[in-house]
Design brief:
It contains 23 helices and ten strands. By secondary structure, it is α/β, with parallel strands linked by helices. The strands form two sheets. The chain has a six-stranded parallel β-sheet, sandwiched between helices. A hairpin with a 4-residue loop joins strand 5 and strand 6.
């Protein structure tokens, strides 16, 4: 059973408690997060430049999203002109069915994958396994967690929750002839040797998309290992899958976003590989697939898009910086969230993918410290959106607004009764003063334990005299 199958956003609290009780996991994340924060800080050493990069990236994403329907139509037309076949999927099941039909038509038995969080989102590997098709992850982090039957815990570094010893143990268990080692280079070379032959044998390659350019019908892939280039050029069929929000207007929009992404994600000025794919192999070309397909997935993104405030969620370029600076994520890791997208960005996008009824605990798993918003390269106001989703989870949709999936499902009858009671007290001074006087007189009867509130807090003790009483006494004196 995979980690993703074992964990659920409905069980966030016990999962988070288990993560907090794991000293090895805490140590692994502490070291990794400190390293990534330092790299980002060094990449943005000049505050003025950082502000300029973030301003440019935010403006591009907002401009492109404001014209998203038209850009998607333009992207489809340009891709088709380039020989890329475009498919539209409303749900994960539709996306998997589309790709399976392509695989069946080509009698595919093995699919080699580059890094793709959207493929994780749709449960692609499990869906293909149900049809007898084997999917092999070629990103090193994804490969490691796949060997373990695990799931990614970070959108950029999937195996960040594992230390060197754990990776060595994984290779020793699954790879014949491996000699345990703590040498990172040796571990990477071992993984590369195991994967190299698989690229040649694979019938299909699958990748994600970082940016899809509407003007030219170009698919852009950002990577450091070369596996993305291998899986998109060696197999005879290449399928790219991405969310509908990844489209940009023109190639000139890509460099500013690329700079913001790489520096925010890994602290690099530029990644090792940047791939631009504009069609299948043409006559005279030495490599490339015979067919290229693009699957554009909605899966709740239209719901976020319809609301101007929630639309800001779709600005995300998947850098992971918000996770690296989040005091919650850095202590419990990604698996505790039980969702494909963990951390701050996961808290605001998962409600649209899975519904508020399934993610109501995630949107409250935040201190609202604002660190995520301060480092986001496209300036998504994550704390503001979390507060908005908290309201949506407990109240009906406002007049003139379409309800979100799971709207109001987090509302509890007892909370509603208590809040209505408090509203009556707060709007009737005599009742309020009488109530506070009674509480002050009988405070000894207040239980010592008030559920989760008193796990890390003391029971509140009402003052013997209210402020109103003290002021009245002072006036008399």
């Amino acid at each position: 059973m995979s980690t993703q199958a074992k964990f659920s956003p409905r069980n966030f609290h016990p999962q988070a408690e288990a993560a907090l009780a794991d000293p090895v996991l805490r140590q692994n994340f502490r070291g990794a997060m400190d390293y990534l924060r330092t790299k980002r800080r060094e990449a943005f050493a000049d505050p003025a430049e950082e502000a300029a990069v973030r301003d440019a990236a935010e403006q591009i994403r907002q401009r492109c999203l404001s014209h998203l329907p038209a850009l998607l139509e333009q992207l489809e037309a340009r891709c088709q002109e380039n020989g890329i076949q475009v498919h539209w999927a409303q749900t994960p099941d539709e996306a998997n069915t589309i790709i399976y039909e392509i695989a069946k038509r080509h009698q595919v038995q093995t699919i080699v994958k580059g890094k793709s969080m959207v493929s994780e989102e749709v449960g692609f590997n499990h869906a293909m396994a149900a049809h007898g098709i084997h999917c092999l992850e070629s990103d090193m982090g994804e490969y490691i967690v796949q060997l373990d039957g695990d799931a990614p815990s970070h959108i950029i570094m999937p195996a960040i929750h594992k230390n060197i010893q754990e990776v060595s143990d994984t290779f020793a268990e699954h790879l014949d002839g491996f000699t345990p080692t703590h040498d990172v280079d040796a571990l990477i070379q071992t993984g590369r040797r195991a994967l190299r032959e698989q690229f040649r044998r694979a019938d299909m390659g699958l990748s994600g998309v970082n940016f899809a350019v509407a003007e030219t019908g170009t698919l852009c892939l950002v990577e450091n290992e070369g596996n993305g280039r291998m899986c998109t050029t060696i197999p005879r069929v290449h399928v790219a899958i991405t969310g509908i929000e990844k489209v940009v207007a023109s190639l000139s929009d890509v460099p500013p976003l690329y700079s913001a992404l790489t520096r925010s994600a890994t602290g690099q000025a530029i990644t090792t590989y940047f791939n631009l794919i504009s069609g299948p192999r043409r006559p005279g070309e030495l490599d490339g697939p015979d067919e290229v397909h693009l699957v554009l997935l909605d899966n709740g993104r239209s719901q976020a898009y319809q609301d101007p405030a929630l639309r800001q969620t779709l600005q995300c370029i998947r850098c992971g910086a918000c996770m690296n600076h989040c005091p919650v994520y850095t202590r419990i890791g990604g698996h505790a969230y039980g969702t494909v997208y963990p951390g701050p960005i996961g808290k605001i996008i998962s409600p649209h993918l899975l519904g508020l009824e399934n993610t109501q605990h995630l949107i409250t798993a935040s201190s609202l410290c604002g660190a995520c918003g301060e480092v986001c390269p496209v300036r998504i106001p994550i704390p503001d959106l979390l507060q908005r989703l908290r309201r949506e989870a407990k109240h009906p949709a406002a007049p003139g607004h379409l309800p979100l999936a799971g709207q109001g499902k987090a509302a509890k009858p007892i909370e509603r009764v208590l809040m209505r009671g408090f509203a009556v007290l707060a709007t009737h001074p005599r009742l309020y003063h009488t109530f506070t006087a009674i509480i002050a007189r009988f405070q000894r009867l207040i239980p010592k334990h008030l559920g989760p509130w008193t796990r890390c807090r003391q029971v509140p003790k009402p003052a013997p005299k209210s402020l109103n009483t003290l002021l009245r006494q002072q006036r008399k004196e």
